[in-house]
Amino acid sequence: MSKARKDFTQEQETKIIKGNVSAAYAAKSARVQVIGAYPITPQTTVVEKLSEFVDSGSMPGTQYIKVESEHSAMASMVGASMTGTRTFTATSGQGLFYMNEMLHWATGTRLPIVTAIASRGPAPPWNIWADFTDVISQRDTGWMCSFCATHQEIYDEILMSYKVCEDYEILLPKFVAYGGFILSHTSKPVIIEDQEAVDNYLPPLPDEKGWPHIFMDPERPMMFGNLIMPSGFYSEFRLKIHDAHMKAKEKIKNAAKEFEKSFGRNYGNGLTQQYKMNDAEVGMLIYGDLALQMEEAVDLVREEGYKVGMVKLRYFRPFPVEDIINIAKSVKVLGVMDRATAFGSPTGGPVSSEVKTAIEGVEKTAKILPMIGGLGGREVTLEQQTEQLKILIKMNETGDAPGDLFHGTLWHGKLEVE
Amino acid sequence: MVTIKQALDDEIACKEWFLPGNSCCAGCGLEIALRWAMKALGPNTALVTPASCLNVVIGLWPKTAPNFPFTNMAFAAGASAATGISEAYKAKAYRFPGKVWEKMTTLVFAGDGGTTDIGIQALSGAAERNSNIIYTCYDNEAYMNTGIQRSSSTPHGAKTTTTVFGKERFKKNLPAILAAHEIPYVATCSISEPLDIYEKYKKAKDIEGCKYIHILAPCPPGWNYPSEDTVELARLAVKTGVWPLYEIENGILTLHKKSKSLVDPSKRAPLVDYLSRQKRFSNISEQALIKLQERIAHDWDNIKAKLRAQEK
C-alpha cells in the first residue's frame, strides 16, 4: 500500500450536511488526486469544502487548481486526467455552458472525469435555481449523466460513478446532477463511509503508468489528439464512444448491485428505480429531487385506492431504453415529468421526447403524457404532484388527454399570463 | 552566454527531439524555435499545443514528429491544460516518489493567436497562480494556420487577409503584460539566436513557477518572402530594434548583447531594411511607416526608463 493510501483517514460517520458538502465528501472518499474548480452559484460550497479539505491536510497529495474560469477548470481536468490521475470538478448552469468545448475534449480523449452539477436554469433572465436544462443540454457531448434525488445519493452516486467511468471498457466522463439549492443548500443526514470500505469498493487509483490508452509519460513518448483526415479512423472512434455508452448500462447495474452489497443502500437497478410499480396502472417517470416528494404523492393517491406508481430515472446518458420499454408496457398511462426544456423537440421536454423515441414501434405501450414543471426552481408542492397523478388516472379512465395541453405537453403549475 | 562549444558538450542538445519528417513549410520559423527549446529541455518534457500550425505540422495521424509526450489541445486551453498536467505530475510524484514525475517540465507552445487573443485568459490565470509551466508564444504575427488573418500580435501596417490595406492597430505587447503579472521569468527570443533560445529555456527549466518566453518566428507564406530569408529576417527584426531581446528575471530586466547597443537609436538598422523584404508591408504608407517608427522608439524609451530605474 502506497503512502497516499495510508494518509486518507475516515471512519463511518453520519453528518448533517448540505448536498454540496456531500459531493465534496464523496470526492475525498474517492481519494481524488487533482481538483480544478471555479466558483459558481449554487455549486460554490462544493469547492469551498474541498479547499478546506486540501488546505487542512486531510487530502494529502491532492492538488487543487484554483482556475480563472470553467473553460480552464475542464481543461485542467483534461490535462490532469490524461497524465493518469483521478480528477474531480463541479459546476452549474452558465459554468457548464462555458465548459462545453472541453467536455467534448474529455470524451474524445476518453477520460474518466467525474463532475458534480448543482443544476440551475439557463440565463437570461438570470436564474440560479433548480432546473436540469443545463446538464441535459450537454446531451451530445458524450458524457454519461445521472440525477440524484437525495443528499445521500449525491455521495453514493459519485462513488459509483468512478467505478463505472474508470472501467477499462468504458473510460468515459460523467455528470452527477442534483437540483440547485433544493439539494445543494439544504442539510440532511448523510452517511460518510469508512475509508477502507470505500477503498474496497472503488477501483484503486490509477497506477504509475496511468490509464491504458492515454498517458504523458517520457518513457513512452506518444502524441494525442492529432489531426485525422476523413479517411482516417474518426468515425470508428465515434462509434466506440457510443459503444462504451451501450456497454456502460451493464456496468452501471453491477456498480449499483455491488454498492448495495458493500453499503446496504439500494438504487434500483442503477439506471432506474421503481416505487410501487408492481401493480400500478398509471405511472410517473420523474428525475432529480422531484422524485423524492413524488413517492409521498404516490402514497397519498394510493390511500384513495388508485394503483399508481413512480419510476425515478437515474440515468439520462446512457438512456435506459430497455427499462423504459418495460415500464411503458407495464402501465396504461405514463406521465413523464421534465424539470427542463428542449425547445422545438417533439414534446418540448427532453426526457419525454426521448421516452417517445424509445418506445416507438413497440406494441401495447402506455399512453405517454409529457409534462413540464418546476422550471427555474419554481416550487412543486405535494398537492401539485398528487394533482399530476390524478390527471394521469383520469386520462386512464376516460381515455382522453387533458384539454389544456400546450402542443401536446402539460405545462403544470404555470402562471396565467396574457 | 552559452557558446556553441558548451551546447555541443550537452548530450541532450546534440540530439533532435522534434524529429525530421514533420510537415513544416520550408523556412518555417516555428520549427527552429521548437527544435532549440527541446534541445534545452530534453525528453522529460510534456508539450501542450493549442490550435495552431504546430497541431498540423507535428504530424498528421498516424505520423508523429515529437520524441516526447505531446498533446494537442483546444484553442483557448493551452495554459490551463498544461497546469492540469503539471499538477498531475505533482500528485504522481507524491504517490511515486523518486521517479521521473518530479523531474518533469510542462511546456506550452502556442501561436500568437492562441496566446495574445483566445488563450490570454487561461494564460493570465496560470501566470497569476504562478503555475509551474513554461509557456511559449511562437509569434508569426497572424493566424497563419487558418490563412493569414490578423491577430492582436500583427504589427501596424501589415497586410493580412483581414487587413487588406494594412493593420490599423499596433501589436499587443504580451511580454509586458506577462511581466505585469510579476511571474518569475519573462523572456523574448528570436529564431536567429538559437543559442539564446537554448540558454533561456535552460534557465526557465530550473525556475519554479510560471515562465513566459515569446519567440519571434518569421513565416515565409504569411509574411510573403522567399523561404531562405527566414533567419535573416529574424536577425533584421533584432538589428532594427523591432524585436528587442531581453529577459526579466524576478522583475530585473536584462538586454541580450545583440540588443544592448540599440538603446542608442543611432545604432539601430533602418526599419525599411526589415520591412522592404516582406511583401506584407509592400503597400505601407509613409504615414504608417512613421507611426511604426515612433512606436519602436517609444518601446525602447520604456526599456531605457526601466533600466535607469533599476540602476537607482
Task: Describe what you observe in this structure.
The complex is a heterodimer of chains A (418) and B (312). Chain A is of the alpha/beta class and 418 residues long. Helix content of chain A is 39%, strand content 18%. A seven-stranded mixed sheet of chain A has the order 3-2-4-5-7-6-13, sandwiched between helices. The mean pLDDT of chain A is 96. Chain B is of the alpha/beta class. In chain B, β5, α9 and β6 form a beta-alpha-beta unit. Chain B is built from 14 helices and eight strands. In chain B, strands 2-1-3-4-6-5-7-8 form an eight-stranded mixed sheet, sandwiched between helices. The mean pLDDT of chain B is 96. Chain B has one domain: Rossmann fold. Classes of the chains: A alpha/beta (418), B alpha/beta (312). Chains A and B meet through β3, α4, α5 and β9 of A and β1, β2, α5 and α7 of B.
The chain-level structural class of chain A is alpha/beta
| Continuous helix count of chain A | 13
Name of the CATH superfamily of chain B: Thiamin diphosphate (ThDP)-binding fold, Pyr/PP domains
* Helical percentage of chain B: 40-55%
List the helices and strands and how they pair.
The complex is a heterodimer of chains A (418) and B (312).
Chain A: H1 3-7, E1 13-18, H2 19-29, E2 34-37, H3 44-55, E3 63-66, H4 70-82, E4 87-91, H5 93-108, E5 114-119, H6 133-136, E6 144-147, H7 151-165, E7 174-179, E8 187-192, H8 195-201, E9 223-224, H9 234-263, E10 272-275, E11 282-286, H10 290-303, E12 308-313, E13 315-317, H11 321-330, E14 333-338, H12 350-359, E15 367-372, H13 382-398, E16 410-411
Parallel strand pairs in A: 2-3, 2-4, 4-5, 5-7, 6-7, 11-12, 11-14, 14-15, 15-16
Antiparallel strand pairs in A: 1-8, 6-13, 10-12
Chain B: H1 4-9, H2 11-14, H3 29-41, E1 45-50, H4 53-57, E2 70-73, H5 78-95, E3 105-111, H6 112-117, H7 120-129, E4 134-139, H8 174-180, E5 185-190, H9 194-205, E6 211-216, H10 220-223, H11 230-239, E7 246-249, E8 252-255, H12 257-260, H13 271-275, H14 286-311
Parallel strand pairs in B: 1-2, 1-3, 3-4, 4-6, 5-6
Antiparallel strand pairs in B: 5-7, 7-8
Helix pairs in contact in B: 3-9, 5-7
